[in-house]
């Protein structure tokens, strides 16, 4: 048993270090599309303000669908960023299941702040399935005026050229679904920093490698989708019972021969994470989602737990230069990736607090990964759901579908 642990730890350590270095190269290739004189380690301006080839004379109008629930941190600023798009014609539809949701106050402020942007609000319960985000989105579909949709979470902000760059790539590559990699920017608490570390330096490297290998998946922070492609894939109803609705959407679109791709631009996200309980609930849902999406791939994540396994080897069997060297290489590659993605997405470098949390992040990921094998239910927006076959959600207290019409208000473009 001791020999097996030593071998597995060494193999996982070597694989982890190599994997993170490879993901750093992929990050540079995907996002650092600058002139030769540009510096990959420079400011974030290259991401949101990079120069594209001249836009075609006409770009298709877009409906931006954003489900709301509660007051996320920076909600007003996030919503503002979607109304400031450098794009000729777009509509914003904000939806909430509860007509008294406090987030609707921000939606109404948005209408007043941007009178030249069509901002529509839909408030009222809809039930397509057990996924609360999809139920929320369903309320805005009747108000969508256009056939190209950008679906984006309420905790996401984007650069002014994001929509234009995304649509240009969408059309240029003949895509049916385009989604964006995202950067966590929360640093208010140690739990926000730790959550950001798991997203920025654990999830994103794996996602970059998956994209490079041609794996069909999507990330729900920002997804551009053609309505006809969505309808061919079964519409929102086809994903309304799945925990990983974004992942399932990509699979359904790929199944109907639609092309899935990724934006050449990072978007930003921040979740309030004030306590360990908040952190555990959200991250256990994330790891549970990974497991139900790809059970075999999830088991294979053992090879990315090199630092934790090497730590165990060092603690149980004493110091040895190979384990120390591999553990140091893993932390160095993580630090390099974290530095690169923070610089690209926000123009800042990691602080000493981020670097000190790197070993904690490794062990946190290891514990959550193990717990993910036993996760059979998740907490989402204050409600408990069971995870059943193929990653579907089930709950014994699902609300009945409302028969009353949605309350809707709109403000036409000036």
Description:
- This protein is an alpha/beta fold and 414 residues long.
- It folds into 2 domains: 136 residues, no CATH class; 234 residues, Spore Coat Polysaccharide Biosynthesis Protein SpsA, Chain A.
- The protein is 47% helix and 14% strand.
- The chain has 15 helices and 14 strands.
How would you briefly describe this protein structure?
Helices cover 47% and strands 14% of the residues. By secondary structure, it is of the alpha/beta class.
Instruction: Categorize the overall geometry.
Output: globular
Helix content: 40-55%
Number of strands: 14
CATH evolutionary superfamily of the largest domain: Spore Coat Polysaccharide Biosynthesis Protein SpsA, Chain A
Gyration radius over CA: 22 Å
CATH class (first level) name of the largest domain: Alpha Beta
Integer average pLDDT: 86
Q: Any guess at the CATH architecture of the largest domain?
A: Alpha-Beta Complex
CATH topology of the largest domain: Spore Coat Polysaccharide Biosynthesis Protein SpsA, Chain A
In order across it, which strands form the biggest sheet?
A: 9-6-8-4-1-2-3-14
Largest sheet: 8 strands, mixed
Q: What percentage of amino acids are in beta strands?
A: 5-15%
Give the H and E element order: HHEHEHEHEEHEEHEHHEEHHHHHHEEEE
Number of domains: 2
Low-confidence stretches: 34-51, 398-414
- Label the structural class: alpha/beta
Gap from first CA to last CA: 72 Å
What is the count of DSSP helices, taking H or I runs of 4+ residues? 15
């Amino acid at each position: 048993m001791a020999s097996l642990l030593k071998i597995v730890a060494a193999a996982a350590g070597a694989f982890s270090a190599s994997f993170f270095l490879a993901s750093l190269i992929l990050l540079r290739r995907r996002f650092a599309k600058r002139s030769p004189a540009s510096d990959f380690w420079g400011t974030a301006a290259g991401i949101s303000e990079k120069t594209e080839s001249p836009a075609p004379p006409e770009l298709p109008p877009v409906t931006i669908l954003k489900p709301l629930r509660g007051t996320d941190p920076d909600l007003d600023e996030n919503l503002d960023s979607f109304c400031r798009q450098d794009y000729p014609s777009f509509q914003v539809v904000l939806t909430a299941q509860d007509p008294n949701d406090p987030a609707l106050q921000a939606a109404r402020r948005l209408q007043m702040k941007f009178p030249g942007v069509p901002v529509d609000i839909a408030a009222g319960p809809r039930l397509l399935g057990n996924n609360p985000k999809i139920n929320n989105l369903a309320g805005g579909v009747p108000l969508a005026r256009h056939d190209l949709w950008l679906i984006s979470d309420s905790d996401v902000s984007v650069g002014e050229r994001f929509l234009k760059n995304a649509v240009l790539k969408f059309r240029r590559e003949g895509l049916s679904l385009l989604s964006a990699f995202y950067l966590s920017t929360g640093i208010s608490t140690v739990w926000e920093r730790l959550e950001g570390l798991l997203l920025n330096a654990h999830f994103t490297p794996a996602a970059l490698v998956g994209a490079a290998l041609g794996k069909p998946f999507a990330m729900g922070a920002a997804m551009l989708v053609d309505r006809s492609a969505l309808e061919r894939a079964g519409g929102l109803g086809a994903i309304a019972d799945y925990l990983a609705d974004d992942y399932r959407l990509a699979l359904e679109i790929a199944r109907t021969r639609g092309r899935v791709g990724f934006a050449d631009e990072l978007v930003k996200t921040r979740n309030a994470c004030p306590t360990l309980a908040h952190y555990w609930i959200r991250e256990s849902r994330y790891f549970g989602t990974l497991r139900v999406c790809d059970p075999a791939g999830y088991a294979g994540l053992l090879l990315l737990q090199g630092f934790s396994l090497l730590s165990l080897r060092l603690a149980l069997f004493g110091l040895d230069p190979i384990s120390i060297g591999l553990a140091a290489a893993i932390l160095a590659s993580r630090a390099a990736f974290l530095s690169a993605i923070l610089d690209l997405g926000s123009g800042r470098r990691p602080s000493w607090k981020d670097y000190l949390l790197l070993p904690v992040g490794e062990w946190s990921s290891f514990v959550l990964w193990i717990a993910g094998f036993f996760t059979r239910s998740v907490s989402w927006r204050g409600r408990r759901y069971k995870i059943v076959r193929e990653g579907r959600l089930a709950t014994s207290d699902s609300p009945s579908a409302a028969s009353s019409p949605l309350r809707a208000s709109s403000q036409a473009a000036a």
